[in-house]
Amino acid sequence: MKFNKYLAMLLGATLFLSACGDDSGEEEAAEGEESAGEESSGDAASLETNIVTIATGGSSGPYNIIATSLAEGYSSEFGVNSRTQTTGASAENLNLMAEEKVEMSFVMSDALTQAVNGEETFEEPIENVQQVAALYPNFVQLISTDGAGIESVEDLAGKRVAVGDQNSGVEIATRAVLEAHGMSYDDIEVDYLGYAEASEAMRSGQLDAAFLTSGLPNASVMELQNSVDLKIVPIEQEAVDVLSEDANYFEALEIPADTYGNEEAVPTVAIMNALVVRSDMSEDDVYNLTKYLFENLDTLSNAHQAASDINLETAQDNAVIDIHPGAQKYYDEQ
């Protein structure tokens, strides 16, 4: 009996010491993890906001591709929930900003100018938007096929033409280009189609031509050229001069040779893209978001080559509305 009692006491003491040892180990591990976490969080800036949603455009367009890379970087760098939202692009993005449903947006400068002035499709001025940067040029790409008989914008008369998603930046630019040639939607058969839809409709013979406004190259056009005899229709300097009379964001540029298998460069008009934020975002947050953008341009360029045209000088010089104080702080430091 005494031996059994002694054995029970010994086993109990052993279990107690073992339990104490386990608690100590867990506490040390927890302290180590906490210490590592504190050290890690000190290495990177943090944001006041927990969410950075970036409104983009169609899933196959440069907006979406570049913004996806940017959002992944924001999530990794700042530990926030950053993601993209696929939309009908510029006009819809600006309305989402006004409704405070997104924090950042990729937009075209023409739509941005109209939005802050309450012009065209914007019934009221959008007042809670400021610019982070002018990005890269969006080239107006008027595409057709060799058999459609379209050699100029004027040849679109009576043809079935995709003009972009309704109220998108593409459609805003399309209207302007037609007006510069003395034309309107009354002269064509209008289809409101985004990049991928327009490409598919042309492939199936349901379209004569399509307007696409994006960085180069556009993935949908690249895919289309493999299945049709693609033709890029020029937009001549005379039309650009008309467009530039009232809007300085229009610029005469060329779609370089071999962009889509074209043997020669094709003249067209381009409009600078803009990255915008809600003006109620803090100065520190926008400073950090801007800093990350410019310190990671190689990553964005690897995602889509259009981002290779983003640079500090044009980011400020080509801005069309007020720059957010956080972004301006970053520029002032350079």
UniProtKB/TrEMBL annotation:
Signal peptide stretch: 1-21
Domain of life: Bacteria
UniProt keyword Signal, yes or no: yes
Entry keyword set: Signal
Pfam families per UniProt: NMT1_3 (PF16868)
InterPro entries: TRAP_TAXI
NCBIfam families: TRAP_TAXI
Name the record gives this protein: Alkanesulfonate transporter substrate-binding subunit
Organism, as annotated: Jeotgalicoccus aerolatus
Native organism taxonomy: Bacteria, Bacillati, Bacillota, Bacilli, Bacillales
